[in-house]
Amino acid sequence: MTADELLFFNDMPGAVPLYDALRSHILSLAPETAIEVNKTQITFRARYGFAFVSLGRMKGCPEVYLILTLGLERRLSSPRAAVAVEPYPGRWTHHFIISAVNQLDEELLGWLREAHDFAQRKSRRK
User: How far apart are CA 71 and CA 112, in angstroms?
Assistant: First the structure.
């Protein structure tokens, strides 16, 4: 993990183990992934961004958490998605509140793979 990644969690250091586990899963799935750290989010990018981590406040957030955002070409019908919006036709943005490592299960990792594959297929919006 880079110093920039650690600095991102300065206000919530308890979320570092959650992030570290998620990061490991992502890099195992897609070793070519680049990680970009910005002030408000960490972007995991292969061809395009496919997974985004943030710490913004959402209703129902526990004391220690991270928000994982995935872009999919379909809306999930799962209560695990805290928020799902369609910012433009054929792209659904889903936000997941992750507060325990065991939430990074096969179901969530399947959606992560789906987001990665979708990002590889899509073209830039004009």
Answer: 9
